[in-house]
Specification:
The protein is an alpha+beta fold and 658 residues long. It has 21 helices and ten strands. Strand 2 and strand 3 form a beta hairpin.
Length: 658
């Protein structure tokens, strides 16, 4: 028999089993589309230009979706092959050898994989472009965000899913290689054995979840959050699968042992049915839970970034006009002269346009980094290792008092300090040849200090900062990156048009000055809202993507369970159970199956809050209330969508069972 015969037979089998293959092909296409679109976002121009951390985060998303794709396609394939065991067994009875059956399965896998991969790539291209066009139209951003992909992205997608479908083929072949045809003929009628509860797997699920939650709860700073985010996500995903597979079995078996709960007709049917095929349910439920978590986190964080655009703009640019002066490491006195000259110059420039300075904040500071070793600050070179150093800003008391409007006084050996993590509890700090007695203060500095471990030190006068510089040069010779810098920020009277005119004039003279850089909040506003609107764009896009995945996975789960339950409920009716009782027990089972993923997903997101909070600090979001309201709103919206999915797919399930 030639290959043409086997390929024709494979095509006929697919057509004959279209009721099974259509949901399988739709679900596989959706997963491939999801992976392709996520991979495409890594190479998107907007993503690459707006933040160095975004490609990393989308790279994590690609890995997560890749792992998810393997699990889901193997899950859907196991349902498919189980339904076809009788057909495969019949081939053996009719005289076909196992190698012939393997060829038929090869062509079936080949045709379905080619169709799924091609449809997934086409759907990704079409869906990506259409949704990008729609979101550009709805959000009305200052500049459109274009959808882009590459041949490398398509090739990576094809390679991954060819490998996954190859694994499904090997699994399918193994199902009949070690089984006799008679057993295969009864394969569809054989239900899954009641899964054995494993205390080890249950404990492992708690360990993995606790580990992932622990990383989120103890993450020290936003820069660490980026590097540890993927590990936390991976641990929670593993813990989620183990929890649904093992934890649910423990709970159901405990309910089964409780006679008051178990020995009632509705509960008897529901608990027995759920326990009987919990392995298959658990994988589907875990998939839905993970996708729901992704939807909630992606949409709520990007909505938070967009809503908090004004807050982040003000955090990044504290005043309408902001000037940063860069000192000369070889000439420490130059910054002092320039510092006071520019204050007068800016007041004069403002006055020439008929405006007045309403408030001005000015201060000099020395920026350096090193390590806290007990009560000593140890200097680091300008190119530290992979471990993040402690960043320190040293200010003179005169400038700090002007900046805060307070009137602190210090002896020569005293200093004020603020530590971003609050873990430094020493009463003194030695830096170079100087030792200061410390008095803690509240944060009066930039919100950017929260990005990593930072220390602000206020010393009595500028000469002590110059001494710190001299000590650094002794301890780290040949590395003179240190210089005293300065910041000048001020607001003015006048209309928005007047302020814009002043900002344009100052930008021409100082934006690219040799010793400093001028930035205007008003000039940055359009670009800022465009960037944050772009993040919202990506969040909505990912939310739609994951929601579509949730819909198709839920649909496939309901179809597969419907076919599994149809025969069982027909038997129940024959032994005397009425339809109302059966339907009631089925309804309660489906409700539990739908509630569990959204409840666990919400718990995941709650524990993810600390690490998400740290990541939001990178974008300048400091208001926790904004994220909390966004989170609650997204959970409610997704729950409403999820309820509609439940209503629609439940009708499909009941239609199959009846």
């Amino acid at each position: 028999m030639n290959s043409r015969f086997f390929s024709s037979l494979a095509l006929r089998n697919i057509r004959s089993n279209k009721q099974l293959y259509i949901p399988y092909l739709l679900s596989s296409t959706a997963i491939i589309m999801m992976f392709y679109l996520m991979a495409s976002l890594m190479t998107n121009k907007f993503v690459q230009e707006r933040s160095s951390s975004l490609p990393t985060l989308f790279g994590i998303g690609v890995i997560v979706i890749g792992i998810f794709s393997v699990i889901f396609i193997l899950y859907t394939n196991s349902f498919l092959i189980k339904r076809r065991k009788k057909e495969i067994g019949l081939y053996g009875i009719l005289g076909l050898e196992k190698k012939h059956v393997a060829k038929i399965l090869f062509f079936e896998t080949f045709f379905t994989s080619i169709l799924s991969i091609a449809a997934g790539l086409v759907a990704g291209l079409v869906f990506g472009r259409l949704v990008f066009m729609l979101l550009n139209y709805l959000l009305r951003l200052p500049s459109n965000i274009g959808y882009s992909t590459s041949l490398m992205t398509a090739a990576a997608t094809v390679a991954l899913f060819v490998g996954i479908f190859g694994i499904t083929y090997l699994y399918n072949v193994s199902q009949f290689t070690f089984a006799n045809p008679i057993k295969l003929l009864k394969g569809k009628q054989e239900g899954e054995k009641e899964p054995k509860g494993s205390i080890i797997l249950f404990l492992l699920s708690l360990i993995f979840l606790g580990w992932g939650y622990g990383i989120s709860l103890t993450i020290p700073d936003p820069l660490s959050a980026i590097s540890k985010f993927f590990l936390a996500v991976l641990l929670v995903i593993i813990g989620t699968y183990l929890l649904f597979v093992s934890g649910s079995i423990f709970i159901l078996k405990a309910m089964k042992k409780n006679k008051r709960i178990y020995y009632r007709p509705g509960a008897f049917i529901s608990i027995s049915g759920m326990l009987y095929r919990m392995k298959q349910n658990a994988v589907g439920l875990a998939n839905i839970c993970i996708l729901a978590s992704m939807v909630i986190i992606a949409v709520s964080t990007t909505v938070t970034i967009f809503i908090g655009s004004e807050e982040t703009l003000e955090n990044r640019f504290p005043y309408e006009n902001n000037m940063t002066l860069h000192g000369d490491p070889e000439n420490a006195d130059a910054i002092n002269t320039r510092f006071f000259e520019l204050q007068d110059q800016f007041r004069e420039d403002t006055k020439k346009l008929g405006l007045e300075v309403t408030e001005m904040e000015t201060y000099r500071y020395q920026n350096l980094f090193g390590r806290l070793n007990g009560n000593r600050f140890v200097f680091e070179k300008s190119s530290p290792g992979t471990e993040l150093p402690v960043f320190m800003d040293v200010l003179p008391l005169e400038d700090f008092n002007k900046m805060t409007g307070k009137s602190y006084s210090l002896a020569d050996d005293e200093a004020l300090y603020y530590h971003s993590t609050g873990t430094y509890k020493e009463e003194e700090l030695a830096i170079g040849e100087q030792t200061f007695q410390l008095t803690p203060i509240e944060n009066e500095f930039s919100e950017e200090m929260a990005l990593t471990e930072s220390l602000a030190l206020v010393v009595p006068n500028i000469s002590q900062i110059e001494q710190i510089k001299a000590d650094f040069e002794k301890e780290v010779p040949g590395d003179s990156y240190m210089a005293i810098n300065a910041k000048i920020g001020w607001n003015t009277t006048g209309t928005e048009e007047d302020k814009k005119k002043l900002a344009d004039q100052l930008s021409e003279g100082y934006s690219w000055a040799s010793d400093g850089h001028y930035e205007s909040r008003e000039n940055q506003r359009v670009e800022w809202y465009s960037m944050n609107g772009g993040f919202l764009f990506l969040g909505i896009f990912l939310g739609l993507l994951f929601t579509i995945g949730t819909v198709l996975i839920t649909y496939f789960k309901q179809v597969s369970e419907g076919f599994d339950d149809r025969g069982k409920f027909q038997i129940m009716q024959k032994v005397g159970l009425d339809k109302e009782m059966i339907q009631e027990s089925t309804r309660s089972q489906i409700v539990w199956m739908f509630l569990l993923p959204i409840v666990i997903a919400t718990i995941h997101v709650v524990f993810a809050y600390p690490i998400v909070r740290k990541l939001l600090l990178i974008f300048g979001i400091t208001n926790e209330k904004t994220w909390l309201l966004s989170f609650i709103g997204v959970v409610i919206a997704f729950a409403a969508i999820y309820w509609m999915i439940y209503r629609v797919t439940s009708k499909v399930y009941y239609g199959i069972v009846k």
